[in-house]
Amino acid sequence: MEIIIVGAGFGGMSAGALLSRDGHEVTILEKNEQPGGRGSYFEDKGYYFDMGPSWYLMSELYDNFFQEFDKKAEDFFNLEKLDPSYRIFLDKKRVWDISANLEENYQLFDGFEENGGEKLKKYLQSSKELYEFSLEEMLYRDYNSILDLLNGKLLFKGYKLRLWENLQHFIDRQFESEEARKILQYAIGFLGGSPENAPSFYHLVSHSDLNLGVWYPQGGMRKVTQGIYELALSQGVNFHFQEEVELLEVHEDRVKRVISNEGFYEADVVVVNADYAHSELDLLKPPYQSYDEKYWESRTISPSALVAYLGIDSRVENLAHHNLFLNKDWDSGFEAVFNPDKKAWSEDSSYYVNVPSLTDDSAAPEGGETIYILAPLAPGLEDSDTLREKFLNQILDDLEEKIDFNIQDKVVVKKIFALNDFKTRYNAYKGTAFGLSHTMDQTALWRPAHKSKKVENLYYTGQYNHPGIGVPMTLVSSQILSQEIR
């Protein structure tokens, strides 16, 4: 079959490799200048910046994908386990390293509260059990009707693990200290949610970072992008860059032509890896939209973000490779992102700081440092240069105060990426950085489907589908998709 894929993000590239391997003629049309989607990168004055994903977690999901081609991740990039896995800042004095050694983390939690280590051990055992169950029974399955959920194992596990309970309540029942609660609840940020709106099911994420560890591909996440791109090329996938799809022309319930700014293509099957909402609302006429504007307005959209890429001409002090700065007013911080009545450019935001050059000499010139700062923002907020600068300056002031190090006077490269950029570069709905949050009614069956409900030969892959947000999850999404097309 002739297959056209819209978008060369991780979902599009992985789907292309799988479908080409299965004997199809695959062409990927990408609006931007390079592969990777949100996993693209840029370089300035010798400073290299991964623009999007920066955490390498759930390594076995990468392995499962590469095994489809009798390959392994190490054929494309070298992995290094980080220790510490990451550093947590609650304030200037309360700073802790989360170790790659679990025993050290048990001791850390003992310092937070009585029997904290034992509580963490029990919590991580539950997380491990659910994670492994998810891989075996849930992750690689598609969900097209309620019948797909009526599985005895799923129903029993759902009852046993209280999946109707939200993550915040689930953790608060088991831990008493602010420190333990915040450290464990922050992980839902990997899935674009908040502890209050995410089901307790997602405490399985703690297994991925605390039990399995945090890894770093030498050369950055761009090496992962490049590896999957090279794999797709080796399978015969054709890539067209700087070619934006403008319309999916449907006739008799089938996409007959894919129309781009360069011309048009006919295909037997069309797979969309572009932003799902954009694809439905802007590329399809209303009669062929499975999910209309009303649907998207009713969804819980994951945060957008301000991302600052800074190159400094000095080595930084008191930071690890990954650093999380958690705000004092925890609830108001989440409300500023998720509560429609209170969303705003917060004055006390939690934020994340990545310094890959501490691990990777190729990330910055000798004597310099590459710094990536990300702070969540509510999707749909007004965006302007004035708002960006004010927000970034307050974050940098807070950062410098907490690490006793001046960054602003040492900046030689600076780029800010925020809501309007997510919209223009990725066609992201309301400027979302991730897609749909992982709430109970946006999990498994209740995420947008891999197959269009209205157009017979139209499919989707990426972070909007099951299983959801994150690079390894998009690889799984493409594996599900290839099975469905096969």
UniProtKB/TrEMBL annotation:
Keyword annotations of the record: Carotenoid biosynthesis, Oxidoreductase
PANTHER family (UniProt xref): PHYTOENE DESATURASE
Lineage: superkingdom: Archaea
SUPFAM superfamilies: FAD/NAD(P)-binding domain
Pathway(s) of this molecule: Carotenoid biosynthesis
One Gene Ontology biological process: carotenoid biosynthetic process
Pfam family, one: Amino_oxidase
Record carries keyword Oxidoreductase: yes
GO molecular function: oxidoreductase activity
Gene3D superfamilies assigned: FAD/NAD(P)-binding domain
Amine oxidase domain span: 11-484
Name of this chain's protein: Phytoene desaturase
Keyword Nucleotide-binding set for record: no
